[in-house]
Design goal:
Number of strands: 13
Largest sheet: 7 strands, parallel
Strand content: 5-15%
Number of helices: 16
Distance between the termini: 45 Å
Strand order of the largest sheet: 3-2-1-4-5-6-7
Radius of gyration: 25 Å
């Protein structure tokens, strides 16, 4: 056994760890560095292959019991918690019940246990359900639950019945350090960005919850005159919905002047270099607990425009230049405020005409239709862009295709429990064959709609001749 330095502790950090591409992994790395700087002997256990000292599959009861065999060797155990690291199916009550009971074993055996909560659904602490009671018992075993904002702390205490003295606040960026030393000019030169351009940056994993499409929509009409928006990141998991979102985001950027998607792996150094190169960091999140990007922007003194969701309001209060917005109209207004004074076209944007709850597929198709006369659900009309002959295209050639709707997985519900069970078994057994087909059919439908809407009317040019997307960092 390694002997810790005098006055230090032997600590086990349980977390994803670099080179895994994960925000929590990056957070854990900085925590480990800070603990070592304090004189502690720190080892890391990750749920998959990484640069950590130990690797262990933590998902499910077997993983929890395997973890129980290791925690007793350390003075302190620090867990970076996200349900996906432990629970096989966080959405099912039975899975939560089984895993909470199993996870209670290592939690109880740890000499001192700290858990940093990065995400959790408070509804899963319902005391009127067996899984909720198990979750409450689990969290009662933790010596110190750490969250990043006061609102998260209040919600956690209420949802899981934890003693308030055991729930503490830790600044999201408390252990953050810079990963680059370049200045703005050198950062822009390395990234191929003009020195005199106003650069908006939306960076992170590409997924619907990050709302990068909202930033692109708000930026419509603002680019091409000394301003640009750069969406930088990659898909975190190889999930068909995530891949589809990235593809549709690329389409949206390709049809928005001055907007670019840089898709690919982003190292810690490159991540910080993009922030240094930017003028404004845009966080158009749909939902989030707290944001590491907000902290890194503050680390380099960059202004931020952020959605007022989760605990971002409290995070923003700790920084000097953060503009919080409540909707897409305010997001666009905040971006305009950051532009140099110039005359903008009277009809520049269209985000305010789109339904707030529309998915990206529908928004892309609306954009492809070149602002056709009326947008469904908007309650307002807008003239379409005229063709070179002066005519206005008001009829969508893709309407019959769009009316077909999009496929989804088969419905497994049934009033009779045995039938429902059989349908679920068949669904699981055949999903590996059915899901790729459903995804391919939906993608084919999307491509057909785009092709029809990009087709010039009566042989004249239409919106399909707009510039393509610039990709790659």
């Amino acid at each position: 056994m390694t002997i810790p330095p005098q006055g230090g502790e032997r600590i086990l950090v349980v977390s994803p760890y670099p080179p895994v591409r994960d925000g929590i992994a990056t957070y854990a790395l900085q925590t480990v560095r800070a603990l070592r700087a304090q004189g502690h002997d720190v080892e890391v256990l990750s749920p998959g292959p990484s640069a950590a000292h130990h690797h262990l599959d933590l998902v499910g009861p077997r993983g929890a019991l395997a973890l129980a065999k290791r925690v007793g060797d350390y003075d302190r155990v620090v867990v970076q918690f996200h349900p996906d690291f432990f629970y096989p199916d966080p959405g099912r009550a039975k899975s939560r019940l089984t895993e909470s009971l199993a996870l209670a074993v290592p939690f109880a055996l740890a000499k001192r246990l700290e858990v940093v909560v990065h995400e959790i659904d408070g509804r899963h602490g319902n005391p009127r359900r067996p899984d909720g009671l198990a979750a409450r018992r689990l969290w009662a075993l933790v010596d110190d639950v750490k969250v990043h904002t006061a609102s998260e702390r209040t919600a956690f205490i209420e949802n899981f019945g934890v003693d308030p003295d055991r729930v503490s606040l830790v600044a999201h960026g408390a252990d953050f350090t810079a990963h680059t030393t370049v200045d703005r000019a050198r950062a822009r030169e390395s990234l191929g960005l003009p020195e005199d351009e106003t650069v908006f940056l939306a960076i992170g994993f590409v997924q619907p919850s990050k709302g990068f499409d909202r930033a692109v929509e708000a930026f419509d009409g603002l680019g091409g005159d000394g301003a640009s928006l750069h969406v930088v990141g990659s898909v975190r998991v190889d999930d068909p919905d995530m891949v589809s979102y990235e593809r549709e985001l690329a389409d949206l950027c390709s049809m928005t002047e001055g907007a670019y998607l840089h898709s690919g792996y982003v190292s810690d150094e490159l991540f910080d270099r993009w922030i240094v190169a930017s003028d404004v960091v845009v966080l158009p999140y749909r939902n989030i607990w707290s944001s590491g990007v907000l902290e890194r922007a503050g680390l380099f003194g960059r202004p931020v425009i952020a959605s007022r969701v989760g605990g971002l309001s409290e995070q923003a209060a700790q920084q000097a230049d953060v503009r919080l917005v409540d909707d897409d109209a305010e997001l666009r207004e905040a971006m305009i405020e950051r532009l140099p004074e110039r005359e903008l076209p009277a009809d520049t944007g269209w985000a305010d005409d789109l339904p707030a709850d529309g998915d990206l597929h529908d928004l892309v198709q609306a954009r492809v239709r070149a602002r056709a006369s009326t947008r469904p659900g908007s309650g307002r009309g807008r003239r379409a862009r005229p063709t070179t002959t002066g005519e206005v295209r008001t009829v969508s050639a893709s309407a019959p295709v769009r009316r077909l709707g999009r496929l989804g997985p088969p419905d497994v519900n049934h009033p009779r429990r045995p039938v429902r069970l059989v349908k679920r078994v068949l669904r699981r057994a055949l999903s590996w064959q059915i899901d790729p087909l459903v995804h391919q059919i939906n993608s084919l439908q999307s491509a057909t709609v785009v092709a029809l809407e990009n087709r010039p009317a009566d042989g004249v040019g239409g919106p399909g001749d707009e510039r393509g997307a610039r990709t790659g960092a």
